[in-house]
Amino acid sequence: KRLVLIGPPGSGKGTQSPVIKDEYCLCHLATGDMLRSAVAAKTPLGIKAKEAMDKGELVSDDLVVGIINEAMKKPSCEKGFILDGFPRTVVQAEKVSSLISNDMFIGEKKLIQLDEMLEKQGTEIDKVLNFAIDDSILEERITGRWIHPASGRSYHTKFAPPKVYGFDDVTGEPLIQRKDDTAQVLKSRLEAFHKQTELVIDYYAKKGVLAQLHAENPPKEVTVEVQKVLSS
Ligand code: AP5
Ligand code: ZN
Ligand code: ZN
After folding, report:
1. Which of 31, 102, 127, 232 is least enclosed, having the fewest CB within 10 Å?
2. How much distance in Å is there from the Cα of 222 to the middle of ligand 1?
């Protein structure tokens, strides 16, 4: 399966990802997580991405398409993947579509008919899960979030507290808050979502692969909804 998770900041993409990943044995490709580790490691990519991320703006399409292209080549992604936080612009959506079709049709399958190939264009993504939610709920989710940077696991002081306050359940390592998880930066992130990413939702709706989730519900209810969509 090739899945895309799309939704505003704090809508629960990162929270639902591990459930889907384990159930379907897919790899989880979260551009936000990858960019944050690049920033922490001060790699050339991280240095280029930091300013936009701190302001809550989108990083350039070229940079994120580059990291996704690399990440999709991992052998663990053979069974399929979950794209979390990507694509976020129509340009990214079109790029990912051509990356996947290259993988599918060049090489051993290059004898496939051209019309078959065109038919596949743009539908290489099996399902796009839209984490639909009202903006007003998101500030509380974002400002209460704590993450374990190494694994990407997230917690919430009120909605998903760790077993020991301030520490990761699995490794016991300390939790941190994301630099962009302030009420102020959230405003820019939401603006980027409404201006740029909502067009990607329309794009996938037209392709007929969009599924709506009620992301305002408690995490377990959202999980049930996700499972229903994926088994249908
Ligand atoms: P990214 O890391 O992708 O951030 P985001 O899209 O803003 O999404 P979040 O991670 O904030 O939200 P989430 O939906 O994963 O929420 P979570 O499940 O953790 O991107 C960060 C930055 O990187 C961007 O601003 C941009 O600069 C750059 N970037 C990344 N990808 C890019 C791209 N493709 N192009 C350009 N730039 C890119 O949940 C949030 C909190 O709520 C948690 O504490 C959780 O415990 C809690 N919670 C979750 N679900 C529920 C629920 N159902 N009920 C109650 N609480 C819940
Ligand atoms: Zn996330
Ligand atoms: Zn909007």
Report:
1. 232
2. 15
Predicted-complex ipTM score: 0.98
- Cα gap 62→95, rounded to integer Å: 10
Q: Domain 2-144+190-231's class?
A: alpha beta
- Point out the ligand nearest to the CA of residue 9: 1
Q: How far apart are CA 200 and CA 121, in angstroms?
A: 16
- 3-class DSSP state of 148: strand
Question: Where are the chain's structural domains?
Answer: 2-144+190-231
pLDDT in tens, 14-37: 999 999 999 988 999 999 999 999
Longest Cα–Cα distance in the chain: 58
Residue type, 126: D
Q: How many residues does the chain have?
A: 232
Q: Is 88 among the residues known to form the active site?
A: yes
The Cα–Cα gap between 73 and 103 comes to 9
- The pLDDT, as a whole number, for residue 175 is 98
13 classed as catalytic: yes
Nearest CA-CA partner of 3 in 121, 120, 125? 125
Pairwise CA distance, residues 40 & 50, whole Å: 9
